[in-house]
Structures are given as C-alpha cells and as structure tokens.
Amino acid sequence: MSTDRTRPAGRRDQSGPRSAPSGPRSASNGPRPVPPQRSRRPQPHRPLRPHQWFAERLLAVLSGQRPVHWMLGHTIGEAYDQLAELAPSTPLRATHGSRPVLRHCRGAQPATGVVEAFASIAAGDRVRAMAFRLEQGADQRWRCAAVELGGERLTAGAPGPR
C-alpha cells in the first residue's frame, strides 16, 4: 500500500500533478489541453404576453384539449357563453392524428387596455386563423371579449367552420 496520499489509488508512476505550460502546445509536446467549458446558465424565462397566453388557452378549449370552464373568469360579456356553445363542436380539433399547435401570434394595442390579436394554428397540413380581442379590467387583469375563426365570428347557436 502506498503512503503517498496525493496520488490517486491505483496510480503507479512517480510523477505528481504538472502545471500547464505557458506556451502553445505542439504535437511533440503532447495532447492539446481541453478548453474550459462555458457555463450553461439557463436563459431567464420570458413570461408570455397576454395575447400569447390567451391564444394558447383558446386553442386548448376550441380543440377539445381542455374543458370550456377552464376559461371561466378569463372572459367577459358573451364570450364565455359563445365558447360554451362552441367547445363541444371542437372547431380546431386534431386532423389525421396531428394535434393543433400555435404557429404565430401577434397583437396590436389600438387603445389603452385593449389588445387585438391574431394567431395561425396548424394541424397537420391544415392552417387556420384565429382572431380575438382582450380587454383589461379595473383590476388590471386581461379578459377575452371576442373570438373569430377563419373570418367567421363565433356566435352561440351557429355551427363552427369545418
């Protein structure tokens, strides 16, 4: 058993740790040193903007992935009633086994406390458009006030586009 406590167990050579040379290494000087690894700090998570958040929620409800009551408290006026009537028909349902995904979502603020947004939704080779309006209440919370799909306004009692 070795009495040298600085040498790893199983090491038989007599040399100790070496310091790195100050000059560049050539093939005759041995293998090249491994560059130090960059720390991979996770990028700070940017919170979704209100229109992006609502687009994801509306997509989940109108595709049948979530129940309509998931939007309770996030809608105003007749928007919730319209969603409740339309959700069972799932106008944005999956086609040919492909789940619908949000491709793009953009918003504009025509007035203080109002955002009008549009989104494109893809399911397989099919792309649909969705537009919606958000209004900010006195409590500073955003709520959905209107939704349209593919140029047709979603109204209670009217069948959704197929």
Q: Uncertain segments of ≥5 residues (pLDDT<50)? A: none
- DSSP strand (E) fraction? 25-35%
Helix count? Answer: 2
Helix content: 10-25%
Rg: 29 Å
Query: Going across the major beta sheet, what is the strand order?
Result: 1-2-3-4-5
Relevant terms:
single chain; 162 residues; alpha+beta; 5-stranded antiparallel beta sheet; 5 strands
Question: Would you write up a description of this structure?
Answer:
The structure is a single chain. The longest helix has 13 residues, at 50-62. This protein has a five-stranded antiparallel sheet with strand order 1-2-3-4-5, covered by helices on one side. It is built from two helices and five strands, in the order H-H-E-E-E-E-E. It is of the alpha+beta class.
In short:
With 162 residues, the chain is an alpha+beta fold. Helix content is 13%, strand content 26%.
Q: How are the SSEs ordered, and which strands pair?
A:
Blueprint: H1 50-62, H2 79-86, E1 101-111, E2 114-123, E3 126-136, E4 142-149, E5 152-153
Antiparallel strand pairs: 1-2, 2-3, 3-4, 4-5
